[in-house]
Specification:
Large ribosomal subunit protein bL25; four-stranded mixed beta sheet; elongated; 194 residues; Ribosomal Protein L25, Chain P; 18% helix; alpha+beta; ribonucleoprotein; 5S rRNA binding; 2 domains; RNA Polymerase Alpha Subunit, Chain A, domain 2
């Protein structure tokens, strides 16, 4: 999985006034959980754009006061009007502990059902995956090569080594439905045979 490096500065004071001043100066208050203690720090709002406003999932190589660690984003709080990031939580990664994160679904191939006029409907764009950090993928590829009209790919159809999908097994990832044009063509063909 891809990593992005972000550096942060330790916060001397933790409180509303301090957080407000940080935001005014283009910084975002942050917390790193998962270690022996919580680490309160701040990061540049500009540095966060590359990891927050993207569908790609990244591990984050954090450097706080000279201490390097690898983490993932656990929670983000946004301002309700401006939608600027007001606070961010990171979770420290442990190579021996599995973590659950959402990974994007990438459709591959061309569906024969779409070629004959069916409509491709993708219901799940991300899947929740539980695995050790070293086993996580950038994306989960789902082949639609065999999808005819009326067929679908469910979570239970996806088999991955060293990864556990925590979504419900019966959830549909992608399906090919009958489009209005195809339905109309079938009705016209049926009427023509009478």
């Amino acid at each position: 999985m891809k990593s992005i490096a972000i550096s942060g500065s330790l916060r001397e004071n933790v409180g509303k006034r301090d957080a407000k001043e940080l935001r005014y100066n283009g910084q975002v208050p942050a917390v790193l959980y998962g270690g022996a203690t919580q680490t309160h720090f701040s990061v540049s709002a500009a540095d966060l754009r590359a990891v927050v406003y993207t569908p790609v999932v990244h591990f984050i190589d954090l450097e706080i006061a000279g201490v390097k660690s690898q983490a993932i984003i656990k929670d983000i709080q946004f301002h309700p009007l401006t939608e600027k990031i007001t606070h961010i939580d990171f979770l420290l990664l442990d190579e021996k502990k599995p973590i659950t994160i959402e990974i994007p679904v990438k459709l591959t191939g061309t569906s024969p059902g779409v070629k004959v006029g069916g409509k491709l409907v993708q219901k799940l764009r991300k899947l929740r995956i539980k695995a050790l950090p070293k086993d996580h993928l950038d994306a989960i590829e789902v082949s639609i090569e065999s999808l005819e009209v009326g067929k679908s790919v469910k979570v239970s159809d996806i088999k991955l080594d060293n990864l556990v999908i925590t979504n419900a097994k019966e959830d549909t990832i992608v399906s090919v439905t009958t489009s209005r044009a195809l339905r109309q063509a079938e009705q016209e063909a049926a009427q023509g045979k009478k």
